[in-house]
Amino acid sequence: MEIDTKQNVSKEILLKAFNHMMLAKAMADIYEENRNICKYVHSTSRGHEAIQLATAYQLTNEDWVSPYYRDESLLLGIGFEPYQLMLQLLAKAEDPFSGGRSYYAHPSSLAENFPKIIHQSSATGMQAIPTTGIAQGIQYIQEFNLKTYDKNPVVVCSLGDNSVTEGEVSEAFQFAALHQLPIIFLVQDNEWGISVTKEEARSSDAYDFAAGFVGLNRMKVDGTDFEASFLAMKKAVDFVRAERKPMLVCAKTVLIGHHTSGVRREFYRDEEDLIKHRAQDPGNILRNQLLENGVDEDLLKKIEKKARLEAEQAFEKAQNAENPKPETVENYVFAPTPITEETGEREPKGQEKIVMVDAAIHAIQELMWKHPEALLYGQDVGERIGGVFREAVTLGAKFGKKRVFNTAIQEAYIIGSTIGMSAVGLKPIVEVQFADYIYPGINQLITEISKSCYLSNGKFPVSNIIRVPIGAYGGGGPYHSGSVESILANIKGIKIAYPSNAADFKGLLKAAYYDPNPVIMLEHKGLYWSKVPGTEDAKTIEPAEDYILPFGKGKIISEADENEISKGRTMLIITYGMGVYWAKQAVKNHPGRVEIIDLRTLIPLDENLVFERVKIHGKCMVLTEEQINNSFAEAFAHRISKACFRFLDAPVEAMGSLNLPAVPINLILEKEMLPNAEKVSEKIREMLSH
């Protein structure tokens, strides 16, 4: 796309930009002069000021922008004060973005008069998917008239040039181009990726790379020239605001400062390279343009002096600001959920039993009828087959392709896009086709989703539901049978449900919908249809539409005989998912002597119920389908041992699959690897002999 360079930028805007550039320079200089005080790692925008300010000046309070860690000038241009930025620089309590938890220039904001900013991590390029999710959400909102805007919102995703080589950035480009989303990918190309040169890192710049994404419009601009940058960004923003199509802007910039305060330019750059970059200092270029246009040099000197004074005063004030109080360290891991009690009718009269897969379909159907902000997407969930397990069948036909739709094979996008969707007020329900394929999305789960509420000081909890068919049965083989709950349970800031029957599934899914936090629903494939022998009890009476089961509430599903308990002849099995059915069959060989608890959710975990019952029985086993070493079950067994040590008659045991890298496809080998009722019964016999 061509830029009209014949237009003029007003002197008022040019002077505003010069003031912000001098402010950014003064701030960078002060940080460098006070390295002993500025002890936390930070980057500055030196060399990138022109394109960043040019972008900021185009945006309204209904737009969204995701800066990256070098975008300090963009933040100044939006309207943030140096003092606010310095509060984060020094990790102070009143840091408006993260409350002293995150790095400098890692903003998150819902400020009424500024463009909105979701949380994003330091992981390069990872903001591309969540920010594209914002554009996807805005398109959905406008399609269904869920909200009116004064102007069509524009979404801007800012990226460094070397981050474009990340595969997840390509997923974002692909989705934006395919669905024609209203987003601008602003790529700031300073030719360096820490110490990696452009020649070492990439075959082309972002402009040429983007040519492969049909439907993604492109523009190239000198990002050191403010006037050219302003005209380019005005054209880009106006285009996206009017046409509702995506745009990539490749802005050539320079790196005058250090990569970060910790990775300094003298470590890896020679003087020749530094001289080349300094010659294109945006502040000097703009100064010369202003002088050529008749602006008095004394005025520019006054602006520079005033900027230095303002930055010094802000820095001194920020130094004196209070530090966070230690007792606040655990705030905002989760947003408070309104779902705390079991409500509604679990077993309505006159209802027939349904299988688990139907419970999920019915729950989502009821939610989508009631809530237009709910939508479902993932691989193959659309109308044609409704999921490879038919777990979404009928939903596409009932709600249409705009609310239930297929995606490409892009697990990172499927998961990460829910961040942006949630930020604009939608409730995305997404699916990863098999648990074994969640790994490409783990990056988004860990770096973005799990930390969003905590690092945004509670502003951006991610409200989503991620459905994950899980588990082994019937020769599914090494890439369709895995259990992943231990990996997920190690990600702090997400909730995990693992229902074992239809009623729990429906109640937990409803709770997940009304929970403002990220929820993963682990759904055992072998329980979907109760086709595995011994799993008939996974079918239940279908709960009423108003039934909701809160997270963190385990259930005793098989009780021991009180007489046996009084004699100290009983034990407890704690399990979930398919383990429930192995345990229920196994205890038939030990009548009256075994109690079973179905955890139902793994995070939060009903430790109170477990500890209370362990103290009564004195013997306990945690049963899982996962490979046992270093598993969730083994870790929980340790916590039980610590909490209940004085009440134990024997060590707490953990039982699971053999410690193999994968589930073999051969049915004989699969059976040998997995627990089953017979193996569990033998373990019970051993433990009861203590």
TrEMBL record:
Cofactor(s) the record lists: thiamine diphosphate
Domain of life: Bacteria
One GO process term, biological-process aspect: branched-chain amino acid catabolic process
A Pfam family per the record: Transketolase_C
Source species of the chain: Chryseobacterium manosquense
UniProt keyword Oxidoreductase, yes or no: yes
GO terms assigned for molecular function: branched-chain 2-oxo acid dehydrogenase activity
Span of domain Transketolase-like pyrimidine-binding: 354-530
EC number of this enzyme: 1.2.4.4
Protein name as catalogued: 3-methyl-2-oxobutanoate dehydrogenase (2-methylpropanoyl-transferring)
Signal peptide limits: none
Function: E1 component of the 2-oxoglutarate dehydrogenase (OGDH) complex which catalyzes the decarboxylation of 2-oxoglutarate, the first step in the conversion of 2-oxoglutarate to succinyl-CoA and CO(2).
Keywords tagged on the record: Oxidoreductase, Thiamine pyrophosphate
Enzyme class at the top of the EC tree: oxidoreductase
